[in-house]
Amino acid sequence: MDFEDTPEEAAFRAEARAWLEANAPSPEDARKMGRETTNEAESLKRAKAWQAKKADSNWACLHWPKEFGGRGATPIQRVIWEQEESRFAVPRGFFEIGLGMCGPTMMNWSTDAQKQRYLPKMLRGEEIWCQLFSEPSAGSDVAGLRTRCERDGDDWIINGQKVWTSGAHYSDFGIIVTRSDPTVPKHKGLTFFFIDMKSPGVEVRPIKQISGTSNFNEVYFTDVRVPDSQRLGKIGQGWEVSVSVLMNERLAVGDAPGPGFDEAFALAREVELESGPAIRDSNVRQKLADWYVQSRGLKYTKFRTITALSRGAVPGPEASITKLVSATNLQNIASFGMDLQDMGGSILDPEVAPANAIFQQALLYSPGLRIAGGTDEILRNIISERVLGMPGDIRVDKDVPYNKLPTGKA
Amino acid sequence: MNFAFSDDQNMLRDQAAKFLAARCPTSAVRKILEGEATWDKALWDGIVELGWTGVAIPEAYGGLGLGHLELCVLAEELGRVLAPVPFSSSVYLATEALLLAGSEAQKQAWLPKLAAGEVIGTFAVAEGAHQPTSRSLAAKVENGRLDGVKLPVPDGLIADFAVVMARTSTDAGARSASLFIVDLNGPGVTREAVKTIDPTRNHATITFKGAPAEALGGTGEGWALSEAVFDRAAVLLSFEQVGGAQTALDMAREYAMGRYAFGRPIATFQAIKHKLADMFVALELGRSNAYYGAWALASGSADLPVAAAGARIAASEAFYLAAKENIQTHGGNGYTWAYDCHLFYRRSKLLALTIGSAPHWKELLISRLEARNAA
Predict the structure, then answer these.
(1) pLDDT digits over A75-85, tens only?
(2) Which of A265, A296, A391 is facing B310, going by the closest CB pair?
(3) Interface touch A393/B277, C-beta < 8 Å
(4) pLDDT class of A25 with cuts at 50, 70, 90
(5) Would the CB atoms of A293 and B265 count as touching at under 8 Å?
(6) Contacts of A297 (CB under 8 A, 6+ apart)
(7) Which residues are CB-neighbours of B143 under 8 A, at least 6 positions away?
(8) Domain range spanning residue B268?
(9) What's the domain count of chain A?
(10) Does the CB of B279 have a partner CB in chain A at under 8 Å?
(11) Which of A204, A223, A247 is the last residue of a domain?
(12) Which of A238, A321, A380, B118 supports an S-S bond with A192, CB 3.0-4.6 Å?
């Protein structure tokens, strides 16, 4: 038992590190960039430049097959690359959905000519892709979606609304699942396309979240015309295509960003109660201990997962644990930090609140982390069904035509 | 990254699992619960024969000289079947205390016998229904003679010797106590069974009246040494707890798949699925913390005190949660004497208390993190 690389992994790490050291921006440049890049257009420009530079040396997307410009890398090599790249302040975040979900979907379902046309530009970051699945009335039950597609000669006409679409406002293309036949059960009447996000009739609007910020969009489709040649899979095969997209789960689900044990521990040492520093209070100490043990448990679980990958395993559903535990803890730690600040705990002004108001901010954005990318409840279903092998829920809608399903309120 | 057990260690696990499946079904545990015997002597003899009692004892002292990772593997399997044997008292506590603090002569005298199963050791600290503190500690040693009452002493009815914590100074402070080796078959020792929540592991009240006591480690080092011994035992016990939690979760799953209510297996209800998912998450957090503890123990890391506390807290939580929710999943059947759920419930709480409660270890953990922060 140790934390060392195998010789092959060490060699790969050295190669990755050497390239990053020669090509990534220096820490000073990165800091300067950080100060300057408050606007999204500017950071997108920088991210595209970095992606192109990586593509020139085959570091743009490690797990893609070599024929599409990837490296055909193993899961453990991806982990090593992520570890090494995260040591540098390089721009990230614009291409994950395209490279992680849309790219593999195109590889599986599009024509050779389409692969030639779209994959290289996706890889280099010249064109950005998004994923259009969720709808206002189809979240966890995404197959209950309503957006319609209707055949019109060689085209399809799409009408409806998608929601929670990350990056729709700067995306060039998107993959979308729509309903082609409402008279058959819900999973059987879906058809899948890729679309040009600049098509007439596509309207992107930002969603204002609880936190007041806007990280996602809703996308409206009004008589959007899509050529049949952009259909992926057969008519009515859209659910199968969607499932293949969702199988490309992100390899390493990160911890929820925000205050964790370290920040709570620091705050408890700083805050004075009538009886002395908060850290002397035994309730405070007991809670801190729980969070320490849980965050360490997640860290060491990751070590175990990486070890399994290193020994050739494929990433499994166990990664669901990280988001389930860390999002809940984040919300609890946020509330705890504010309780320590007592009457003043409600102050959101970072000039006044301790630690630049990270606890207050986290209270407002943490509910979203318990929902996005699989709600707590769906994650528990995944653990019980895919890890523990328990049966799925009884589906009362399985054999009912979609247009006969009760819908309740949208 | 190699944060897992080796092929050889996993082979040892398979052998251990096979042996215990044959020799320690729950009917064997139930026999101790309901019968006259207070431990499973035949199982213990089998364990000794396999050399498990000497796994982490160096060859120079008659052991197998393997190491603590192998001991962790065995602990997990023993925990899985609730083995009613004095393994934790004799191996994790008495043996570790001797390895840690014994003089060369003491190691020569005791370790070969412990490895060969000729003697069973235990560790006696508690003096009743409260946390032992430097103010409360009453047992005392003067001129090599021990007076006092220890309870509950795990495996106190069957152990041949005990490492006993006793006062050697009238101060109430970190140097108020020392450790002593006391022959439990010798003069001045009377023992009596004490009833605990888990009768599948025997516990005793031991009264010492002028019992001969030989110092183990330096005078005044009792608290520090017992803390160090408990850190090592915490890691090993955490594997027993992980093993027990795994069995409890497996039992709950199996029952839920086969039990029908409202026309369907209860395993299809989210109320049950989510309960089991939570048990699994706690178990994974416990297992991962236990692994880190194992690494720290086996590698002699300076991080052992923090790692051990983490393993102790997470594994105690995981086993107790799995054991109580296993009863809940079984419904009314789970509450009966006839079903085995209560065996795990009893053991989970026993193990969560035996070297100090979770609140105590949480306090220790934060103190240790504060100390590390200050350093």
Answers:
(1) 899 989 989 99
(2) A296
(3) no
(4) confident
(5) no
(6) A325, B284, B285, B286, B288, B289, B310, B314
(7) none
(8) 224-374
(9) 3
(10) no
(11) A247
(12) A238
